[in-house]
C-alpha cells in the first residue's frame, strides 16, 4: 500500500517480517529507507544482530493494531523496541479497542498524548447487506455442500470465506480446487511468503475465493471484495464486524453471509443486536446442495490422497532440513578445528 501511494515520489519503503530472507532485509535497512514496515520480533532481531543497523535517525514510530499485537503476545518485544528508540521522536498508536494493556503501553511509549477517536461506536457499513444461512441439525454434515452450492450459483467472484480452523480452511481450498474453482488459502500453517502470495493472487483477481482464518480479518484492505462468507459463525461482535468489514468499503455495496447452526442461533442473534444488524434469511435450494454433497463424496478419496501426500512431503522436507543442519554443524566443527590447528602451527 505504501509503495503504491509513494510510487510517484522519492519515498523509499522496505518490509521487515519473519519468513523472508534476513540478508535481503539487512541490505534494505542499510540503504536507509524512509519508511520501514516491520513486525516487532524481526526488527529487534536486526537491531541486535545486523551490523550498521540502528535507530539513531528514527523520527516517527507508529504502532498499528496495538491491541492485536498485545493479543498475539508481542508485549515484551514492543516494550524492548520502545526502549531502543531515541527519546526525541513522535509516536503514534492505533488501536481498535482500549484495554488496560493498551493504557500501560501508552504510559510507556507516549508523552502527553492527544487522543483521537474515529467513530468509536460499533457500527456496520450502511451499504452492507447482511444475510444468514441456517444450517439445521439434520444438514450440519452437508455444510460444505451448502457453501459450495452458494459459491457455484450465487457468489462467484471476489469472495472471502472465513473458516473456523486452519485444517478446515485447507480442506475447503482442496474441495474448491477439485471442483474447478480458483481459490487461495490464508492461515497460520503457511509461511509468510505463502501468505503474501495468496493475498497477491486474490488482489490481482487471479483467484476468485480467499479461504481464511481470522488471521486475515484485520489490517487487510483489498479493493473490490464483493462478499464475505462466515462459514464458521463468529464468537463475538468484534470478530463479526472485523470480518464483514472486509467488504462494503468506501461507499461500495457488499454482502455478508453467515452460516449458523442451531447451537449458535442465540449467539448470532446477540451479535446482530449489538452490531445493529438486520439479518435477512437466505434459503439455499435443496437440489444444488444435494448435487454438491454427492460431488464432495466422490472427491473424498482424492482429498485424502492430497492430504496424505502433503504430510509425506512435509515430513521429507523436515528430514532434509535436519540432515542439512547436521552437515552444517559437522562442517563448522572441522573448519574450526582446522583454523585452531593452523593458528597453533603459526605459534
Could you walk me through the main structural features you see in this protein, from its secondary elements to its overall organization?
With 347 residues, this protein is α/β, with parallel strands linked by helices. It folds into two domains: 2-109, Rossmann fold; 128-304, Rossmann fold, CATH 3.40.50.300. 48% of the residues lie in helices and 14% in strands. The protein is built from twelve helices and eleven strands. It has helices at 2-5, 22-30, 40-49, 66-71, 75-84, 100-109, 143-153, 166-178, 192-203, 237-244, 265-275, 286-346; strands at 13-16, 35-38, 60-63, 90-93, 128-135, 159-162, 183-186, 209-212, 227-230, 254-261, 280-281. Strands 7-8-6-9-10-5-11 form a seven-stranded parallel β-sheet, sandwiched between helices. The chain has a two-stranded parallel sheet with strand order 1-2. The chain has a two-stranded parallel sheet with strand order 3-4. The radius of gyration is 25 Å and the shape is globular. The protein starts with a helix and ends with a helix. InterPro entries: DEAD/DEAH_box_helicase_dom (IPR011545), DEAD_box_RNA_helicase (IPR050079), Helicase_ATP-bd (IPR014001), Helicase_C-like (IPR001650), P-loop_NTPase (IPR027417), RNA-helicase_DEAD-box_CS (IPR000629).
